[in-house]
Each structure stands twice: as C-alpha cells, then as structure tokens.
Amino acid sequence: MAEEETDQPFTSELGPLVEEVRRFAAAVGEKAQQAGGRFREQNPEVYGHLATAGSELLAAFRAVVSGHERRWSAPGRAESEHIDLDGPSDN
To answer: How far, CA to CA in Å, does 89 sit from each of 38, 81, 85, 86?
Structure first.
C-alpha cells in the first residue's frame, strides 16, 4: 500500500469534498467561538449559570453511566430473562 493511501483514507474523488467540509467546519467553529465570546461578555451571569448547568448535567450523566457499569460488571449480577418478541413459531 502506498504511503499516500494510508494518509488519506478517502479516494481521490472525495478529497476535494472532504477539504471543503473541513473548511466549512472550521469557519462554523470560528463563528461559534466569536458568538460565544460576545455572549459571555454581554451576559456574564447568564453564561456562568449555563456553564454550571452544563457541568451538573455532565456529572449526572457520569453518575448514571458509572452506576450502569458497576451493575453490568458485577460478578453476581441477576440473570437475564429471554423475551420472545416474535411470538410462538409456527414450525
């Protein structure tokens, strides 16, 4: 396999499209950062509340995932019950 093929996972036909998507994503990201910066400057209290709320949501999500992981990996976890969603077979 040529080195160029390993660096570019897309075919040559998709190369220009991929580059255009990268430029578009960079432009959108830059505009979002500018808007976020203006929002932060104009509404520091609101921005602080939103940042705190986001952190709390992330902490809640982590707690849920952590709880599920503990139950899934517990050595004596409850047996599962098979539920036949197709109904009885006619065979």
So the answer is: 63, 19, 11, 8
Q: At what angle do helices 44-73 and 15-42 cross, to 10 degrees?
A: 120
- Whether residue 31 lies inside any domain: the answer is no
- Name, in order, each residue with C-beta under 8 angstroms of 71's C-beta and a sequence gap of 6 or more: 77
Task: Return averaged pLDDT per consecutive 10 residues of the chain, 91 residues in all.
Answer: 51 81 94 90 93 95 89 72 76 55
Residue 28 lies in a domain: no
Any domain includes 49: yes
Q: How far is the C-alpha of 32 from the C-alpha of 37, rounded, in Å?
A: 8
